Amino acid sequence: MTKLKKSLETPKYIKRSAKLISFFSDKLAVQFAMKLFITPIKFPTPNRELNMEKKSKIFPLELPKAKKDFMVYENGNGSKKALLIHGWNGRGTQLVSIAKELVDLDYTVVSFDAPGHGKSSKNTTVMTDFIEAAFVLERYYKGFDLIIGHSLGAMSTINVLGRGFKAKKAITIGSGDEIINIIKDFVKTIGLNEKIAHKLKEAFEAKYNKKIENYTVHEQIKKIEIPIFIIHDKNDLDVPYSASENIHRNAKNSKLLLTEKLGHRKILGDSKVIAEIKEFVSKKI
């Protein structure tokens, strides 16, 4: 079996730069870390996603608050509607295996490239942009029956539902829980001291005028009544599965599936996971 790896390993030159900058100034280290944290990396679309891309109707929409554009993918022509939200450094076609099954289940599948991702314009982005995009699409499509998110997209899924997004069911895959833990992990990954994490949190809150605690997933899920299927792999090296366990503990109506040896990305195309998703989606409420 292929050894599981993090979705993105930090290049050594970034770690060296971060340590050098922090030696001279914590303030500069925070600025350096923030720039890295909000700037996604665009990767070429893998061959496995090209067929979905080819079959999709692709068009741009705008985020009025963030003043950024994003690209939308519409696939299928079903009577029900599903919104898929990719994770950091992902694309609107990243959940291709799930999208294919949903089209077969009579869904029109809508996804998008968040700002700075995929075919969207090069830009910085944060989770609030993902959240705004979901609400823009909710208005555009006049609601959804199902919403599914992976990683940061999963965190965004619970946050939009907690803020009034209407759907009948939801699925999260590999979700994080508390943003401060993500910041701590990121700071550690680029080789900086944990004290920079707390200063980075303060810098984010000052820049965006929002408390990051307002986006804690296990708090937002307490507001949600609809059935939620929470999926996570025990060998996920990007996001610990304890995050999904905590989210599940705080949910009113959730089912938890913990897989093994799939990691953060392979889980999206695993046949057994897809079968579980189909069963959840098809089950009458």
Mean pLDDT: 95
The CATH topology label of the largest domain is: Rossmann fold
Largest sheet: 8 strands, mixed
The number of distinct β-strands equals: 8
CATH class wording of the largest domain: Alpha Beta
Tally the helices: what do you get?
11
The best one-word shape is globular
Mind telling me the CATH superfamily name of the largest domain?
A: Alpha/Beta hydrolase fold, catalytic domain
Radius of gyration, whole Å:
18 Å
By oligomeric state, this entry counts as single chain
Organism: Paenimyroides tangerinum
GO molecular function: hydrolase activity
Protein name: Alpha/beta hydrolase
Pfam families: Abhydrolase_6
Brief write-up:
One of its GO terms (molecular function) is hydrolase activity. The chain contains 11 helices and 8 strands.
Characterization of this structure:
One of its GO terms (molecular function) is hydrolase activity. InterPro entries: AB_hydrolase_1, AB_hydrolase_fold, AB_hydrolase_sf. Residues 83-160 form the AB hydrolase-1 domain. Helix 2 (26-37) packs across helix 8, helix 5 packs across helix 6 (152-162) and helix 7 packs across helix 8 (194-208). The model has no long low-confidence stretch (mean pLDDT 95). This protein has helices spanning 12-24, 26-37, 47-55, 96-104, 127-141, 152-162, 179-189, 194-208, 217-220, 242-250, 271-282, and strands spanning 57-63, 68-75, 80-85, 107-113, 146-150, 169-173, 228-233, 254-259. With 285 residues, it is an alpha/beta fold. It has an eight-stranded mixed β-sheet with strand order 1-2-4-3-5-6-7-8, sandwiched between helices. The protein folds into two domains: 8-37 and 179-215, no CATH class; 64-177 and 223-285, Rossmann fold. The protein starts with 11 loop residues before the first helix and ends with a helix. Helix 4 links the parallel strand 3 (80-85) and strand 4.
